[in-house]
Known about the structure:
With about 450 residues, this protein is an alpha/beta fold. The protein is about 40% helix and about 15% strand. The chain has three domains: about 1-70, no CATH class; about 85-310, UDP-N-acetylmuramoyl-L-alanine:D-glutamate ligase (3-Layer(aba) Sandwich), CATH 3.40.1190; about 320-440, Protein-Tyrosine Phosphatase, Chain A. It has helices spanning about 1-15, 25-60, 65-75, 80-85, 100-110, 125-135, 150-155, 170-175, 180-190, 205-210, 280-295, 300-310, 335-345, 390-400, 410-415, 430-440, and strands at about 90-95, 115, 140-145, 160-165, 195-200, 215-220, 240, 245, 260, 265-270, 270-275, 320-325, 325-335, 350-355, 385, 405, 420-425. Helix 6 (about 125-135) links the parallel strand 2 (about 115) and strand 3 (about 140-145). The protein binds zinc ion. Zinc ion (ZN) binds near residues 237, 248 and 250.
Amino acid sequence: MFLVAAALLKPRCRGAPGLWFRRGEDDGLVRATVCRLRRAWARVAVRAGLAAAWVSRRSGLGAGSIIGGRVALALDPDALSRLAAGRCVVLVSGTNGKTTTSHLLAAALRTAGRVAHNATGSNMADGAVAALAAAADAEYAVLEVDEWHLAAVAEAVDPVVVLLLNLTRDQLDRGTEVRAVAAVLGAALVRLPRTLVVANADDPMVVWAAGMASRAHWVAVGAGWTGDAATCPRCGSILRTDGPSWKCGCGLARPEPDSWLDGELLHTAQSVTALDMRLPGRFNIRNAALAVAAAATLGVSPQRAATAIREIDAVAGRFAVIHRGQQELRLLLAKNPAGWAETLSVLEEARALLVVINAREADGRDTSWLWDVPFEQLPRRAIVASGERAADLGVRLSYAGLDHHTQPDPLAALALLPAGKVDVVANYTGFHQLLRRLAREAGTS
Ligand SMILES: [Zn+2]
């Protein structure tokens, strides 16, 4: 019904003002009428999007967060800016940790008010529209945004804060060269003179990009992956490092941090906050530090933010523990070399391991990144290579000297592993396919 109504209304509302008035009429009255019609049309677009999302969820086609946003944007290209108007919007971007960090930050801000959040990780404009439409009364919005879409989303929502986590190589066909991503982000930040950028002081790519912003709050959280930080992003010279500091002859250097992580303690000049997380891994402590620092810039005390995020033990299925038959599965997502390098640190305990690799559009079609993952560091254990690109993964594991089986179907692959604890590491679509199958099997979807 909404779609039919939308189809009837759309051409009139989006037409030129000349459709509605003749030259010589009162321009003020006409402008007011046009504004009213546009607002009415925007409401129709949002309701149509919500209806499409509802249909998607009810039919089991998806979470509705993409189709709902696309319908609203198709009917009203300004839907994102209209929905964001008057709210305190924070954008979270970077190569790894966007979904987790945005969940942590949303939890922290919920201690101050209602929060709109694209919790399922739909991180382009359509996902942002869907999240804002679903929480019309939320005064805060935490929006995870893909690096390549930050400029467009930021221009529409005029964020109060942009939280920039890290920038490392991704699949060649998706992310291109990491310095190019940093340059695009920097150019976007230049156009946000009122925005505060909260950024990782230990990632030279991030510092170069965030340094183009008019205001930055630097958080020193260390870096788990330095494979893309050997040379200066600004001039290409070799970076000189001295302990945590780094600098280049051109002047680009690690900025003096406003907040810094020491073990699991987040320091500022005024406070020390313990980040005793339930989520595993050093990388999640870094994510938490950045989320707490960002929340503090919006008036949520570090202590209150840390207390809120301490409750989180799984994020959109990631880090969840599922019992299936005689096996206890711990679900982890890793989709690029830096993500894997971080994940390896939580695979130290020699559990059985299922690795699921797909190469769909959302994963990147290119699987050469598997050769940048230091699988050689993986302690020996029972391993099965799985997913639509199981064969590619199997070759890589063979070159790493790791005995393994290869079985493209992840559930069949689990049958090849022993009873007990099993770590499951999958990339993006592999992870979500497996989650859906496990949920269907358990009768929860
Ligand atoms: Zn330089």
